[in-house]
Amino acid sequence: MAEIYGRRGDTSGEIIVHQELVNLPNEWIIYSQPKIITDSGNRHPDYVILHPELGMIVLEIKDWVEIIDQSDDRAQVRRKKDKIIEWQTSPVKQAMNHCFIISDELKKFPDLLGNKGELLVTWRYAGILPNLPMYLGFKDLVQRMRRYNHSYAIHKIE
After folding, report:
1. What averages of pLDDT result for each successive group of 10 residues across the chain (158 residues)?
2. By the 8 A CB rule, do 131 and 63 touch?
3. 55-61 and 47-51 as β-strands: parallel, antiparallel, unpaired?
């Protein structure tokens, strides 16, 4: 079983994803609700996951039950808990921003840099919407990450 550090999130979506992550093999190291402390402020991604093959994966989980409209990096959504319709930032964009911040912090450690100063840690990100009907689960996301190095939800440093 995967090692999970930190507390489980409280929303129904975070609980669904947490139950999936618990059952991953033991090569997965999972930080649930970590606090990322930086010079520019603190960040709170839902999950930061480490895997020997896939590197670092940052997940943002949302309890959206309906996407009504969307723009480039925002969506008008209905949440499960209160059914209120509002515009929110894309969880993919949030996870991506967390990755940029974490990678900037990791670059402060010379042992994690290659000869050209590039970060040797591969990172990816995804927004997960487990309450929408098309949600296939974290294992499907991992299969896609292994198959494709780039997409709107996944990023790999070359």
Report:
1. 90 89 91 91 93 90 85 83 86 92 93 90 88 69 60 32
2. yes
3. antiparallel
Residue that the structure tokens 């670059």 belong to: 107
| Integer angstrom CA distances of residue 119 from 57, 93, 100 | 15, 21, 11
pTM over 0.85: no
CB 144 within 8 A of CB 138: no
Long-range contacts of 47-51 (CB under 8 A, 24+ apart): 47/17, 47/21, 48/98, 48/102, 49/21, 51/27
What does the block give as tokens for 85? Answer: 């319709």
Q: 118: which 2 tokens?
A: 């590039």
CA distance 60 to 92: 7
CA–CA separation, 117 and 119 (whole Å):
7
